[in-house]
Amino acid sequence: MEITVAYLQEAFRKYNEEIFGNALPMPNLRVSNAKRRLGSMHCRIQKTWGKTHRSFTIVVSNYYDVPLSLIEDTLIHEMIHYEIAYKKLKDTSAHGTLFRQRMDEINHKHHRNITISKRMTDYAPRKNDQTETYLVLAIEMNDGSHLLSSVTRTVLADLERQIKRVEKISNFCWYVTQDAYFRNFPKVRTLRARSVSTEVFTNLTAQMTPVRNKNGWVETL
Prior knowledge:
Layout: H1 5-18, E1 28-32, E2 39-48, E3 51-61, H2 68-86, H3 97-110, E4 134-141, E5 146-151, H4 156-163, E6 169-177, E7 187-188, E8 194-196, H5 198-207, E9 209-213, E10 216-217
Parallel strand pairs: 1-3, 5-7
Antiparallel strand pairs: 2-3, 4-5, 4-6, 5-8, 6-9, 9-10
Helix pairs in contact: 1-2, 2-3
Pfam family, one: SprT-like
InterPro entries: SprT-like_domain
Protein name: Transcription elongation protein SprT
């Protein structure tokens, strides 16, 4: 799949809650085109008026065509580094005793396959696929939650009739986009959607082109 910052933010929140007990503040998250490594974690230390400030950055490479599970394992690998650095824990080396203990614990408890390193020769560079246009349904619920769905165009009218009968939906809008974030979304023909954070919802919809809302067409498809 194509890696985006929005995806990394969503995945970070998920694994921060599931694995790290929400103990890690959101770091800077970046996507790179690095060929030598799938991920890295950096800590920047600045001193201002006698006070020390630390900022953390996690970088994940989009150069190789790798499965989603490996992208997730790479992110969690870097989150272990981040946890050790953020909590100022002492380890014997970059991938020392503490790191390996934490890695083994996560692999066993959460059924992951995190490793110390990967051979880049095992993976092919990502192909420059033709850009695809997605029809996206963005839904806001009465309880404040947000949903996104990639929809088959031919069922737009049917789904909209269903949406208007669901009292829990407070607002909805149809968009078109070429954002690779939706590449791993199934194109649905029924009223199904994926829950996302408010931040991800706001960032993505701000970059998409609205075509229809509850009042009618905004722009012709």
